[in-house]
Write a structure and sequence with these properties.
Layout: H1 10-29, E1 44-50, H2 54-64, H3 66-74, E2 78-81, H4 97-107, E3 115-119, H5 126-132, H6 138-141, E4 144-148, E5 154-160, E6 166-172, H7 173-176, E7 180-190, E8 196-197, H8 199-207, H9 236-243, E9 251-261, E10 269-279, H10 282-292, H11 301-308, E11 319-323, H12 339-342
Parallel strand pairs: 1-11, 2-3, 2-7, 3-4, 7-9
Antiparallel strand pairs: 1-10, 5-6, 7-8, 9-10
Helix pairs in contact: 2-4, 9-11, 10-11
Length: about 350
Amino acid sequence: MKSCEHALSRRDFLKTTACGVVGGLVALNFPKAARPAPSSAEPTRAALVKGDSRADNIFKALKLIESDIKKGLARKKMVVIKPNFVGVDRHLCATHADTVEAILEFLRPYVKDEILIAESPGGAPAMEGFDNYGYLRLPKKYNVKLVDLDDEPFTILHAVDDKFYPESIRCASLLLDRDVYVISPAVMKTHDRAVVTLSLKNIVVGAALKDKGFRWGGRGKNDKPIVHGGRGDAGIHFNLFTLSQKLRPDLAIVDGFEGMEGNGPMGGTPVDHKVAVASADWVAADRIAAELMGFDFTKIGYIWFAAQAGFGEGDLSKIEILGEKVQDNIRKYRPHDRVQFQYKWKEGPQLTWPSTSG
């Protein structure tokens, strides 16, 4: 039986969260006010590896931050690897099976229990992607189970549309469970709404569920588009930023062995980049990946908001980057044709606040 936690009516949501949404918008305009006090913790670490083997790159990157991963695993009861499929029939858009196999090889000494590989693609059942992308070989070699998140329990969260009205989203409870160590092996890609799609977006949009058996053009409901924030994708960066407080990877991996430029996340063209990024800090990983792609991360709203709010480290000078140097591995990716439209979030939200009376 699927669960539905904290479900609210539209009126109750508005009454109880009006100050929270407005406060969030104020925090975005004055991000330093939202930053927590500096911590005396160890500096953020990230790994950057370049090489001629996708699997070797991933494995070596994880070894460079091995101590951080071990600490994270020690605090969790289960491991979930959440690949990024988007579609189920184009390999360039999806997390390669070799990437996941390299992660499983790295985890062998540390994780003896069953590991879940869980996904909810944009418009088709996950098992079709697992089959098409060569994942069916993994349970034959490792103690893993392939899971379609659309078949799993969900929790209700909320996002906003273009007028900042709230909308309910069914989100995978598995990815919200703080006893679960969530790994996000994303592909380095441009995007048609959020400029780039990396480790965080893989988790947030992937967690939003659809009806079992849903396909584009068919019947049923898909909650993933709600994250895009209504007409013109006006709320997408705000939604990704706010949802990242509950939906985020414990280990962020960005596979840029063969990236995608142009009209991603599905229709772009390949980039022979041969890099891999990994960090226990998703902000750091996505920040480095954006730099490697040649993008100004201050124009990528959700990553910039998160960095300014102290959700992770976005200052390259404060990240201990192990392995390769970022400046030596930058490839300027061709952005989506609509990228200038995607930068309009910097003009600020245009709010028409809804009435809660009657």
